[in-house]
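Quarterly update from the structural biology core.
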Amino acid sequence: MSSRSLRTRGASWLAFSLWALCVSLAALGVFFAYLSNFATGFSPYLPNLISGTLSFSTVGAIVASKRPRNPVGWLLCATGLFEALTAFGGEYGTYALATGSLPGGVFAFWLGSWTWLVAGSVVLFAFHFFPDGRLPSPRWRPVTWLYVLVSCLAVAPFALAPGPMAGTGIPGLPPVANPFGVDAVARLAGPVGAVSFPLAVFTGLTPVVALFVRYRRAGEEGRQQIKWVAYAVALLTGAITAVSVWPPLEGSVAGLVLFLAGYLSIPTAIGIAILRYRLYDIDRLVNLTLVYGALTAALVAVYLGGVVSLQYLFRFLAGGESQLAIVASTLTIAALFNPLRRRVQAFVDRRFYRKKYDVARTFEAFSAKLRNETDVNALNGELLRVVHDTVQPEHASLWLREPGSGRGL
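Predicted structure, tokenized:
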């Protein structure tokens, strides 16, 4: 096995290990939210955090496993991980501090109090490198380092400021002092904030500018890839701006929905680029995931619906349940598998792989006409039309050899 193959396999293992860690932390966060609901009530931001964890970590793991040298996939994995740490740390810390039954509650709560901000910074940072994994030009290196510096300055007050941590003091949970608070951070907060705020505005716009620069330089397919992500970044920026400018949106249902729509637009846009414009050349993998994911969901629904409805029927007719319901539902699933798979595959191809679908339909139509058409001249014209529609050459001509001679027509 070549060293490149080993590196790719190692990267794939690491990427999906990070995904498994993110999913596990998210599940534990939901579990402790369920437990703490009886004492304090869980965070209203938890649905956003769970959705962000699953979406970013999944897209990131797929991209990183296929293109390990491209930092975009790893940055998306990191975004999902920080989201998961926020969900787990906040909910575990809340439950541990409220009940006193588990250790490490203060540390977990501290971890959840600042990792959400890192997640937002990392996902925007990824678009300096989107889609090819390189900066728009070497002149962007100082900009990226400035972005990292300003992001660290923004996180520092949340992670290192002394005094009660944000989020403590809710009913059932007394205020908890920051275990890693540094007095110097409190003294420097004013001067550093005055300097870092305009820098934060500037660096916050750099992902949008980077995408705009790439868009102007890219070809048609590259522009289609960037277009969706540019829309997503604009939507996320608008959501953050709206929540920041209008304080009543903070923590409200409208604010949560707005922020969730903007935040989830990032992995959604990358998914559209993968599906429709062959970004990272893994559209076949995503195609199969869509087909068999939808197929599994449909078959499970049919199976459960068949079992339940037949059991009701047997209970009504015979006064009791019967194993025939399970047998009949299983046979129905076996009979439906291939027809349903073909229909789902056709829908996915038609919706996300239109060019491939149109080519297949064109050849099917030509094959049908070939079986029924007897006019050679009509077939010649039809064949040239098919070539133009599928291969799209600048020029095409048909040469036929006359039977019994070496001359062509």
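The longest helix spans residues 283-318.
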